[in-house]
TrEMBL record:
<protein>
    <submittedName>
        <fullName>Phosphotransferase family protein</fullName>
    </submittedName>
</protein>
<dbReference type="InterPro" id="IPR041726">
    <property type="entry name" value="ACAD10_11_N"/>
</dbReference>
<dbReference type="InterPro" id="IPR052898">
    <property type="entry name" value="ACAD10-like"/>
</dbReference>
<dbReference type="Pfam" id="PF01636">
    <property type="entry name" value="APH"/>
</dbReference>
<dbReference type="InterPro" id="IPR002575">
    <property type="entry name" value="Aminoglycoside_PTrfase"/>
</dbReference>
<feature type="domain" description="Aminoglycoside phosphotransferase">
    <location>
        <begin position="25"/>
        <end position="257"/>
    </location>
</feature>
<keyword id="KW-0808">Transferase</keyword>
<dbReference type="GO" id="GO:0016740">
    <property type="term" value="F:transferase activity"/>
</dbReference>
<dbReference type="InterPro" id="IPR011009">
    <property type="entry name" value="Kinase-like_dom_sf"/>
</dbReference>
Length: 337
């Protein structure tokens, strides 16, 4: 049983929500931000996500928003887990949390999919692109999410947000970050569409069906909002330029031999599905996405220092801040900085 989940206090709450029964729980590995647990009660299986304990950055770890999002999407048939209940009373287990049904299936941790055939790789990547396009086709107002994000240019808001988040958790002076903070707001591209944006859409945040290349569930909606769908899509495309290190990076692997679609094929498929003529120059978007990731990882670094990081891998990830900032500035220079 996880030491950081108080089953003696959780079990009575579960009884009021899903009924009585013996409770078993295990913590999932990973989860740099919100600790996540599998909760079993007989034949029923759930997933619990909670905020970290301790002091938190403003607007971070917004599990209430995650819950509202999946509660709105689930009735549409979009692949998200069925929401069960949200508990905003921190007295129950020490932090607010929510419960959802566990979706059976496969998590692909390594984007290279080393054990798959070329046809299997292609089919899974095409399913991943199609599920993102389907998300971006949902009308937020029609599903009750018209107020889920603020009006105005999404990238302008996000650059300002991640600048604030970075400043709130800053531990070092990094010239590349300072250059980005000055350059990005001046060069924000125009926005012509608004959609639900996942915020962290990559292969290991999906559950695929047990028996084929179908996306059974999209997970980890903590960073979701309303905004420019190109934020999600260009974030996904970054995997084609990220070294294959057993995570989502597939740089140099795409093509007929592996079966992984090329970046050009992925762009064409997404554009066809969403009615776009093309995707504009990617370098600005890659610089922005890496700057945003710098802010996220800087927050993890601060939580490591404060002693309330949610994962044993957090300390190693925290050391990536200077590298991410350098990569972001390299793309900024390619974009004309």
């Amino acid at each position: 049983m996880p030491a950081d989940l108080d089953l003696a206090r959780l079990t009575p709450w579960l009884a009021t929500v899903v009924g009585d029964g013996a409770v078993e729980a295990t913590r999932y590995p990973g989860g740099q931000s919100n600790p996540t647990y599998r909760v079993d009660m007989g034949t029923r299986s759930f997933v619990l996500r909670r905020k970290p304990f301790g002091a938190l950055l403003p607007s971070a770890h917004a599990i209430e928003r995650e819950y509202a999002l999946i509660a709105a999407l689930h009735p549409t048939g979009y692949p998200v887990p069925r929401p069960v209940a949200l508990c905003e009373d921190a007295d129950v287990i020490g932090a607010p949390f929510y419960l959802m049904e566990r979706v059976a299936g496969r998590t692909i941790w390594d984007g290279a999919m080393p054990d798959a055939t070329p046809d299997e790789r292609r089919a899974h990547y095409e399913a991943m692109v199609d599920a993102l396009a389907a998300l971006h086709a949902i009308d937020p107002v029609a599903v009750g999410l018209g107020g889920y994000g603020k009006p105005g240019n999404y990238f302008e808001r996000q650059v300002a947000r991640w600048t604030r988040q970075y400043r709130a958790s800053q531990t070092d002076d990094l010239p590349d970050v300072e250059r980005l903070i000055e350059w990005l707001p001046r060069t924000v591209p125009p926005q012509d569409r608004v959609s639900i944006v996942h915020g962290d859409y990559r292969i290991d945040n999906l559950i695929f069906a047990p028996d084929g290349p179908r996306v059974a569930a999209v997970l980890d909606w903590e960073l979701s909002t309303l905004g420019d769908p190109l934020a999600d899509f260009t974030y996904l495309l970054m995997n084609w330029g990220t070294e294959p290190d057993g995570r989502s990076g597939i740089k140099g692997l795409a093509g007929a031999e592996s079966g992984i679609p090329t970046i050009e094929e992925v762009v064409a498929r997404y554009c066809t599905a969403t009615g776009r003529a093309d995707v504009p120059g990617l370098d600005w978007y890659f610089a922005y996405n890496l700057f945003r990731l710098t802010g996220i990882v800087q927050g993890i670094k601060q939580r490591v220092r404060d002693g309330n990081a949610a994962s044993a891998q957090a300390a190693a990830m925290a050391e990536r801040v200077p590298m991410l900032a350098s990569m972001a500035w390299d793309f900024a220079r390619k974009a004309g900085a």
